[in-house]
Every structure is written in C-alpha cells, then in structure tokens.
Amino acid sequence: MQRIGVFICHCGTNIAATVDVKAVAEALGREPGVVFSTDYQYMCSESGQTLMRDAIREHKLTGVVVCSCSPRMHETTFRKAAEKEGLNPYMVEIANIREQVSWIHKDVAEATEKAIILGRAAIAKVHLNKPLKAGESPVTKRALVIGGGIAGIQTALDIAEAGFEVDIVEKEPTIGGKMAQIDKTFPTLDCAACILTPKMVDVAQNEKIKIFSYSEVESVKGFVGNFKVAIRKKARYVDEEKCTGCGICTEKCPQKKVPNEFNMGLDTRRAIYIPFAQAVPKVATIDANYCTMMKTGKCGVCQKLCGAGAIDYKQQDTIVEREYGAIVAATGFNPMKPTQYNELGYATCEDVVTSLELERLMNAAGPTAGTLLRPSDKKHPHTIVFVQCVGSRCDAENEKGKPYCSKICCMYTAKHAMLIREKYPDTEVYVFYIDVRTPGKNFDEFYRRAVEQYGVHYVKGQVGKVVEENGVLKVQASDLLSGEQLHIDADLVVLATAVEPDKSARSIATMLTASMDTNDFFTEAHAKLRPVESPTAGIFLSGVCQGPKDIPETVSQASAAAAKVIGLLAKDKLTCNPCVAESDEMLCNGCSSCEKVCPYGAITYTDKEFRGPNRTTLIRRVASVNPAVCQGCGACTVACPSGAMDLKGFSNRQIMAEVDAICKM
Amino acid sequence: MQDVKEFRPKIVAFCCNWCSYAGADLAGSSRLAYPADVKIIRVPCSCRVNPLFILRAFQRGADGVIMAGCHPGDCHYTSGNYFARRRMTLLFSMLDYLGIERERTRVEWISAAEGAKFSKTMNEFAATVAALGENKRLEDLRCKK
C-alpha cells in the first residue's frame, strides 16, 4: 500500500476563492492510502516545496498528489522537489484544480466537489504508479536552422559563437530573407542592407556554419539530440564550388523577361541570375522554367561565357543526409497577396501596391534606383494613400483575412510616410487606419514625429473602394471621427497587407511534429515561460514563424532560441522520457500489430526461449520496445490484441483507476 | 413537496496532452466556463484511448464519454489520431448496435489554440447528455457499492 501525501494549493486566491481548499484537504485526507493532507498558499514557491519535502521525509511518503494548476505548468517543478527528497519523480501526480475547476466554475460547492473528485482520480492513479527511471541518449553536437532570414542568421551566428556546428537550410538561392528586401528600418531609419549584409558575410565566413542554399528539408527522423535530416539540394545548374559570382552570365543571358521576385515582380531579371549584389552565397542560379537552353536545347550562352566552367545543364537534385541534436524553425513570413480584395483594386490597378513593393520602389538597389515612381507611367506620385490592416484583424468568420494584428504595419507605414514626406515634400500622404498601434522603444515617438513634424494626414477610417479613372486612383473612404465620406484622387495606393506564415511552414511543422495554431504559426511550449521552444523536444522557434514580429524582436528571439540550443548541445547525454511502452513478453504472441502502428519504428521482434510444459523449451517471437526511440504515444497499447503492450506512466490500470474514481461519486 | 434533485450527468473527457488538454488549459485561463460535470483524464495521445476505457466508463455509470485530440494531420505523434479515429468509428457502430444513444459518445478535434472551441464543445456535449438522461443500459449496478 502506498503512503500518499496530498497537497492543495491556494494559488493565492486563484484556486482558494472558488474552491474550499480546507474541505478538499479534509475529504482527500480520508481517502485510502492517504497519510497526510494539507493546503498551502503557494505550493510552487520555495516554502511550498519545502513543506512538501518535509512531509515526504516525516511521513515516509511513497506517492504525492498535488492539487494545483495544470501539470503542463508545474509538474516538473513538483517532480524535481520530490526527487530531491529521494522520492522517484514519477510518483508525483497533479490534479488540475485551477484551469479545470476554479477558473471556470463560479459555484463554490460545485467547484469544491469537482476538485475532490479530480483529487480522488489522481490518488487512484498514484496508487498504481511505479518508480520510473529515465534512460539516457547521446547528443549530436550540431544544430540545424531552417530558414536563412535575419532570424535564422542570428540564431546560427550565436550557436556558432558558442563553438557548435550549425547548418542553415534556405530554400531561396541566397540567405537574407525579407530583411534583405527592406530599404530602411524603423525607428532609427538606418539602412537594412548596411546592418544585414555584414551579418550575411559573417555567416559565410564562419567555419562552424554551413549554408545549404536553394535547398529544402526533405524528411526529419529521430528525436531530440538525435535527429536525422534529409536535405534536398535543388539543382541550380551551376556548380557552387566553381562559380565565382562574377555575374557575366547574368548580364549576357538572352532571356530577359523573367519577373524578378526579389523586386516583387516590379522589374525583370535574366533566366540565370543572382538575386541581389550582396547575395550569400554569391552563386548564379538558372531558373529552369525560363532558361532557353533547358526548354529548347538551343542557347548555351552562359556556358560559353563562364570562365570558371561552372554551368552544368545536367545537374540533378541531390539529397544530403545530416545528423543534428537540435532543430530551429526560422521559416519566416510572406506578406499576404491582397488579390481577394476586389474593392481595393490590387489585381486590376498597377498603381495599387503592397508595402513590400513600395519598399522596393524606394530602395536604392530597387527597380527605380530609389526614386519613387509609380509603376504604371513611371511618374512621381503627388498624392499617396496608405491603407492599413489589409487582411489583418478580420472577424473570425471573414475567411478573406486573418484574425490577428500583424504588428509591424503601423510602424513601417509611419516610416514610409515619413521617408516620402522628407524626400518629396510636395507629396500629400494619407494614412487610413483602424487603430495606430506603436508599442515599443521609441516607436510612439517615431509615429508622432510622422504626424507632427512631417505632416502626414492620419485618418481614422476605412477605405471602401479604389477605382482607376484616367490614370487617377479614385479613393473613397470614411472618416470615422468627422463622420464624413472622403473622396481622394490618389496617384499611388499602398496596402499594408497581413503577415502570413510562409507556405512551407506547415509541411515543415509536420515533419518536425511541431504543433501549429490555426493561423499556421508555430505554437510555443508555453506562451509566457517557454516562448522559443516548441512543445516537441529539441525543436526551437525563431522569428516570425512563431508570430508577427519586428526586426529587434526577431533578433532577440533568435538569440534566445540559440541560447536554448546551446544549452541542449552542451549536454553530453539527455534523459529520455521514461513514460514509454513496454511489452510483457509472457503475453506477447508476436503478431506484429504494434509494429504496424508505431510511428517511430521503436518496436522490434526477437526470438526468445521460454520454458514450456514438461521441462521443454519453446522459442517464441516477442516484441520489444527500444525506450530511446519510443516517444510514448501509446498507439501500440491499443493495437495489441493480447494486452501485452502497456504504457509506463499511463498504464491501462492507471487510466481505468481514474475512470473508476471519476464515475464513482 | 419533495425536492427533486436536478439530474447532473457524469461525463468523462479523454484529452490528449498536446492539443486538447492544452485547449482545456486555454479555456481555463480564458475563463470560458463549461459544466462541472465534465471531468478530464489526461492521456499522451488520443491513440492511447482504448475503446475498453470508454466501455469501462459506461459500465461504472458515466452518462457520456467524449474523446478529444489534435486535428487530423496535426498529431504530435504524426499519426496517432488517425488510429484513434478509426477505432472510435468501430466502437461507435458497436455501441449503436447495442442500442446506446449515439449522442452519449463523441470525438472532437481541439487544438491547443482552441480554448473557445473546447468550452463550446463541452457545453454542448453536457447539454446533450443531460437531455438524454441517465445511462441505464450499460451501467453495471454490481459496480455500485
């Protein structure tokens, strides 16, 4: 019989206000096997843990039940405390009486009754708990960063700084990401390229960092500390080792009419190209969809001109297998294409652009060499209308948009407005907004400068319609504060479109078995306390793939993720989750049902000798589970027809005991 | 006049640790109420839920059982909820055959971000089960003391 101690946490008044904690302690104290039961204001505090440890010692407890907040919050805390007192950490169970009781029920009697029942279920489970010992597995001292934007770059640099190897996988021909496309950055207005490109060079020169550009993650196997990743290096038809990046091919290629994605399609590039002058690696790539040689077999101009002999039209995709201890998702974002908003005319009017397109139009390295000219007639626009929250902050029912705030648009629009007014004082700038949201260091000051010093017209209201008439964009909008309808003749309309997670993020999340929210942002392990970790062990999050962020936030999160990775890679051995499946060889009939459902291939079969009747020996095929590979999902336990497979920590008997306790009442 | 006690159903909810249990936590931290009749049992994955657990709950007097897991395709263990979905389909058709009201059992996919859905589902389910009344057909009276 176990000797169980029960501890009821008040959580300040979070629990105690709706649950009669004394009554719960008293009721649970009468349960069979419970030798000690008490309540305390904050069980997770130092003194609360001391109380628990003293009780374990004094009452010789063999099991502990803590009625407190969610086990997702403090299970580890209490298990560690128990371990310090020599109790096996897996003899501790949590009854969640905060999230599941006090926070959602108002009636004290009802809440108290439910708390008692949940406590009883936990006690019933602890009666059947067995001490579990976690196994150990080695750590591969190398990290993988998926995505080579500023988030991935910063994470990789920080990990390399600590002396560990890092690989960056970037699907584009160059690293740099969205930040490389940006002209200036708020709130300091320093140029993005000047602060990003030196970092890109650092990455290229760092011996610890290997860049897989124009590559994608093909598959991920394994688990924390021991990931096996297949990387597909897409054929770029140029030998990376030989290409010197001289760029002669990109000047002489006769196929000139390829939309230049780096400039958001505002100009064209050649079929063989280097995305931008500071690209890393500075290696040309052939776009097979446009290359005349690839399509017709006649041309070969680049091959003839290439002094290094780097062109290889027959290059194939190659798969590289690498091992990693930790993986960082830094898959970033794309601004939404606002084609579904017919009323805003993006699809029909050339002079309705997105903010990132405007960014290229204002960039010295962009298609207009930094002179602001509108795309249709290459004339300087005199009236510019900015429309905020295009696709952001929509109702949940509105399928066109996103429910969240994209966070960066208010600031970059203030930046655009300010830069335009500074460079072209004769331009009138209107900004239509729902709210202006500028929290952040020096952010609100920046926005106020746009309004007060630069005379940008901020109008609270929404733009209803944009129609083109004789080269003029007729903007119809409402001014919510004056209650008037406004009609503005604009030359250029700029849409601040929603930040969307990159399209590849979902398939990557599936490979990593990392969870995502309904908007396809990666979910963090804990919204407040573990913001850079995925709930999946060994997977870390960096940058906008976790939620909309500006550059300073992205960089700090990137460094935070790096710190977590370093913490993991610095360990020589990892303790595994001991709640894994185990097979009872006496019951197993070797039918292979479990092996078929195991997503990790953790189950193998061996022939074992058993003692048969009349002193004979029988050889039977039985299943055995590799505890280092098993992740403890329990699929096999249900598939097993003979009941031989069980899951430690969530055994059939434990779950049945919980069911019984709940149904008893 | 005798005071007739209002019928309160006993409902067992199996929630997977990664999505639905986290969804329940989110419902809690967002203070989205659902009836106290719902009691949650945490399992690592919906595929850990043996159909026998559900029968056991009915045998012991539960009036409704709901199983909640990650959305298909989003399973933390890649494929667990697909297995769970198949198994539950089989179990439900068996319960149907036994003449147990179909509404007493339910499977829902609730992600960690869907606290509102968790609360809404539990409210609906509790109301449905309450309307059905006591589970008399499967309860084993010998299990009662």
Quick tags:
heterodimer, A: 665 residues, alpha/beta, Rossmann fold, FAD/NAD(P)-binding domain, 4 domains, five-stranded parallel β-sheet, 34 strands, B: 145 residues, four-stranded parallel β-sheet, 4 strands, 39% helix, 16% strand
How are the secondary structure elements laid out?
The complex is a heterodimer of chains A (665) and B (145).
Chain A: E1 4-9, H1 21-29, E2 34-40, H2 46-58, E3 63-68, H3 71-84, E4 92-96, H4 98-102, H5 108-128, E5 136-138, E6 142-146, H6 150-161, E7 165-169, E8 184-185, E9 190-191, H7 192-205, E10 209-212, E11 215-223, E12 226-233, H8 248-252, E13 258-259, E14 268-269, E15 272-273, E16 285-286, H9 292-296, H10 301-305, E17 318-324, E18 326-329, E19 333-335, E20 352-354, H11 355-362, E21 383-390, H12 409-423, E22 428-433, H13 443-452, E23 457-460, E24 463-469, E25 472-479, E26 484-490, E27 492-497, E28 499-501, H14 505-512, E29 539-541, H15 551-569, E30 573-575, E31 581-583, H16 593-597, E32 603-611, E33 617-625, H17 635-639, E34 645-647, H18 652-664
Parallel strand pairs in A: 1-2, 1-3, 3-4, 6-7, 6-18, 7-10, 18-29, 20-27, 21-22, 21-27, 22-23
Antiparallel strand pairs in A: 5-30, 8-9, 11-12, 12-17, 13-14, 15-16, 19-28, 24-25, 25-26, 31-34, 32-33
Chain B: E1 11-16, H1 20-29, E2 38-43, H2 51-59, E3 64-69, H3 80-98, E4 105-109, H4 115-132
Parallel strand pairs in B: 1-2, 1-3, 3-4
Helix pairs in contact in B: 1-4
Structure overview:
The complex is a heterodimer of chains A (665) and B (145). Chain A is α/β, with parallel strands linked by helices. In chain A, 28% of the residues lie in helices and 25% in strands. Chain A has four domains: 4-128, Rossmann fold; 142-329 and 546-557, no CATH class; 333-500, FAD/NAD(P)-binding domain; 581-648, 2-Layer Sandwich (Alpha-Beta Plaits), CATH 3.30.70. In chain A, the strands form twelve sheets. In chain A, strands 10-7-6-18-29 form a five-stranded parallel beta sheet, with helices on both faces. A five-stranded parallel beta sheet of chain A has the order 20-27-21-22-23. A four-stranded parallel beta sheet of chain A has the order 2-1-3-4, with helices on both faces. The model of chain A has no long low-confidence stretch (mean pLDDT 94). With 145 residues, chain B is an alpha/beta fold. Chain B has one domain (11-143): Rossmann fold (3-Layer(aba) Sandwich). Helix content of chain B is 39%, strand content 16%. Chain B is globular, with a radius of gyration of 15 Å. At the A-B interface, helix 3, helix 4, helix 5, helix 17 and helix 18 of A face helix 1, strand 2, helix 2 and helix 3 of B.
